[in-house]
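Example for tutorial group B:
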């Protein structure tokens, strides 16, 4: 198995929706709204995706100013492909795409809280959200 990485936003929408339905169970994305999912893909500053041939197995969807911060709005690896370094590689590609001084910020998924330190993240006690 060879995993390839892409920075193209040319991801089939149905593949993306299927992947998101399986990957984001704790914090679901609006997968029932195809138009909104298409806008999430289109309006991201950049996306790094991981592929096993033509199967989407990982994604990192980002918003960035390329100067101070890159916000990782989605980071996920298909459960059958976890523990193979794919998440770490996605983050490395994000770092390469962002500037060297750019900090990476993400909102945590409780199920992955023990994972984030393994890929270089530290917890932050001053984050707030509004829905």
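The residue assignment follows.
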């Amino acid at each position: 198995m060879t995993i390839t990485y892409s920075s193209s936003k040319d991801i089939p929408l149905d593949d993306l929706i299927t992947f998101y339905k399986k990957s984001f169970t704790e914090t679901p994305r609006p997968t029932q709204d195809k138009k909104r999912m298409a806008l999430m893909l289109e309006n991201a500053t950049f996306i790094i995706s991981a592929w096993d041939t033509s199967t989407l197995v990982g994604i990192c969807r980002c918003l960035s100013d390329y100067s101070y911060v890159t916000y990782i709005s989605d980071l996920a690896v298909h459960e059958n492909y976890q523990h193979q370094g794919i998440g770490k590689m996605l983050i490395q590609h994000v770092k390469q795409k962002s500037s060297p001084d750019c900090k990476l910020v993400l909102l945590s998924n409780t199920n992955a809280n023990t994972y984030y330190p393994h890929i270089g993240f530290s917890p932050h006690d001053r984050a707030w959200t509004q829905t």
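The CA atoms of residues 107 and 127 lie 8 Å apart. Compare this with the pattern of hydrophobic and polar residues in the output above.
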